[in-house]
């Protein structure tokens, strides 16, 4: 019986599979759209929400997202960016323009769901924003997003938190 030599090649690591529900996909696309808008604003351009939404809709995965949720979050955040930034800013430890665009976008989405879309339970709003920051942001950005949104939830959803 002949033994074959062991291979010295390292196993190929595959990307972990993520289970994306239509709602998670909608939030991910909303984050990408809000991100694009923030980057354009920081560069001194006026973002075109319709053009951004059209470009996102061309992605093959977009058809598997919950379109009404995407549209509600994306347009809601863009229409209320100044108001949402006013809510977020007191909870920050630095100027809002120093946040990474991903953290900024995740915070805007989380603040939108905490302050405006009261049909979303506060724990879900925080968790979804944290997951967006984990997926698209820097190494520890999700921890910052979690801390800021937790402070906002105390202020905006105190009765819901007390109720358990």
Main features:
164 residues; mainly alpha; globular; single chain; 8 helices; 63% helix
Q: What's the short version?
A:
This protein has 8 helices and no strands.
Could you characterize the architecture of this molecule?
The chain has 164 residues and is mainly α. Helices cover 63% and strands 0% of the residues. It is built from eight helices and no strands. The chain has helices at 22-42, 49-57, 67-79, 81-88, 101-115, 122-136, 141-156, 158-163.
Oligomer: single chain
The major beta sheet can be summarized as: none
Strand portion: under 5%
Q: Low-confidence runs (pLDDT<50, min 5 residues)?
A: 1-17
**End-to-end span in angstroms?**
67 Å
Q: What integer value in Å does the Rg equal?
A: 19 Å
Structural class: mainly alpha
Query: What form results from the Cα inertia axes?
Result: globular
Helix content: 55-70%
> Could you report the average pLDDT, rounded to the nearest whole number?
90
Order of helices and strands: HHHHHHHH
Tally of helical runs: 8
Total number of strands: 0
